[in-house]
């Protein structure tokens, strides 16, 4: 287990105990999807880092199959309490116990923002394995051209755009930048949504 993975487990466990897991404005999320022309209809989707199921209400309405995974049992307990019929699983590390080429779409919002580049590479290798050949990965990063990779006080990593693009090329992904989303709370930095294809 990497240091960042261990710290993230502790971080989200504490959040769940304090009942601080805020939701997301589903109307805003639907507008984002509409603006980006991301079509999830009749798709199988993996919500990688599903947390308490903050985006599940949208995915459950529009996707053919939904499956979520997270590293923290405590947040999954909250997910189950809110959405008993949802399908999700606890993962202990970066290995996902799912067959190859299982998903059309992998959604990975605000997960890589908590890890160094070495851990992201391991996660992307596994996501690539379970992504269908014509599938897409949507993931977000905190990009900064003025900072080296830096561990922030609340568990956020910034990443240089060049390093991220080099990693995608190394792993065989084609990259598209749909849109800058919004500033990350407490930082003068923005989360950038990226679309990856094989």
The named CATH superfamily: Vaccinia Virus protein VP39
Largest sheet: 7 strands, mixed
Q: Considering DSSP H and I runs of 4 or more, what fraction of the residues is helical? A: 25-40%
How many domains is the backbone divided into?
1
**What is the distance, rounded to the nearest whole angstrom, between the alpha carbons of the first and last residues?**
28 Å
Number of helices: 6
Secondary-structure element order, as H and E? HHEHEHEEHEEEHEE
* CATH topology heading: Rossmann fold
Mean pLDDT: 81
CATH hierarchy class name: Alpha Beta
The second-level CATH architecture is 3-Layer(aba) Sandwich
* Strand order within the widest beta sheet: 3-2-1-4-5-9-8
Strand content: 25-35%
Alpha-beta classification: alpha/beta
Count the beta strands. Answer: 9
Gross morphology is: globular
Radius of gyration: 16 Å
Low-confidence stretches: 18-22
Describe how the helices and strands are arranged.
Layout: H1 3-17, H2 26-36, E1 44-48, H3 56-62, E2 65-70, H4 73-82, E3 88-90, E4 103-108, H5 117-130, E5 131-142, E6 150-151, E7 157-158, H6 161-170, E8 174-183, E9 190-197
Parallel strand pairs: 1-2, 1-4, 2-3, 4-5
Antiparallel strand pairs: 5-9, 6-7, 8-9
Helix pairs in contact: 1-4
